[in-house]
Amino acid sequence: MNPLLQVSNLRLSYPGRGFRWAAPEVLRGISLDIAPGETLGLVGESGSGKTTLGRAVLGLAAPTSGSIVFDGNDITTASQSERRKLARDIQVVFQDPYTSLNPALPIADILSEPLIGQGKKPSEARRSVTALLDQVGLPADSAARYPREFSGGQRQRVAIARALALQPRLIVCDEPVSALDLTTQARVLDLLIDLQRRTGVAYLFITHDLSVVRHISHRIAVMYRGELVETGPTAQVTEAPESDYTRRLVLASPTADPDRQRERREARRMLSLRSKA
């Protein structure tokens, strides 16, 4: 099966602060791919470059070199008009649903906006709103309400519904559950899994939390300081990691078992001592 998304040797530098400042390289030769209907979990600590990679895929950050190919087409330097067409196939769900939803608009307008932007008549777009709300488990009367009237988890469901409006083939999920409590996190993750089963959409799922990607991902790619340090099936990466950095992430992830948590703390201490030796 040909990959839906293929990133090859991608490099990205942000401009320096003057002619004497070297441009910091945020992405250093990143290569990865995502198959149709697959979830690739992209995990790393703050500053690893994972969000920058997501922005590059979305056309919000310009690579210095390398390529981004979607469905066989090179989109690395796609123009604004080409990106508007790509919006049918590539969508995004951001971390904070409140700031990503226009507080002045009712949910009906928020969900119909992308449909109208792609050429649907307003009346047709409005008819699609009820179906979108149903897809994400929200009642039809939510259409008349405003973002401030919803909880964080409900707002994220609205954001997911908006991403689904154009029936995309890939959704970039940038820390979509990190602002939610654990119970709500689990519900939103289960919703994303269910939607994938029903629609066949693929996810690039970006997070700092290894326990989250373990729950939702088919494969995991681990980033550290702009580089990929490990990629593989979820079970392999989380149960038998090859990289010391991945091991530290695994050992730092919480567990409900206090004995296992103590074992992880001790293993983390030993790993830290070994790295300093």
In short:
The chain has 11 helices and 10 strands.
Question: What does this entry look like structurally?
Answer:
The protein is an alpha/beta fold. The protein has 11 helices and 10 strands. The chain has 2 domains: 5-239, Rossmann fold; 243-277. It is 42% helix and 22% strand. The protein has a 6-stranded mixed beta sheet, with helices on both faces. It has a 4-stranded antiparallel beta sheet with strand order 2-1-4-5, with helices on one face. Strand 9 (219-224) and strand 10 (227-233) form a beta hairpin. Helix 6 (152-164) packs parallel to helix 7 (182-199) and helix 10 (244-252) packs antiparallel against helix 11.
Number of separate domains = 2
Which band does the percent of strand residues land in?
A: 15-25%
Q: Identify the strand order in the major beta sheet.
A: 6-7-8-3-9-10
Spans of at least 5 consecutive residues whose pLDDT stays below 50 are none
Give the N-terminus to C-terminus distance in angstroms. Answer: 45 Å
Corresponding CATH superfamily of the largest domain: P-loop containing nucleotide triphosphate hydrolases
Q: What is the number of beta strands?
A: 10
Secondary-structure blueprint:
Blueprint: E1 5-13, E2 25-34, E3 39-43, H1 50-58, E4 65-70, E5 73-74, H2 80-86, E6 90-93, H3 97-100, H4 107-117, H5 122-135, H6 152-164, E7 170-174, H7 182-199, E8 202-207, H8 210-216, E9 219-224, E10 227-233, H9 234-239, H10 244-252, H11 258-276
Parallel strand pairs: 3-8, 3-9, 6-7, 7-8
Antiparallel strand pairs: 1-2, 1-4, 4-5, 9-10
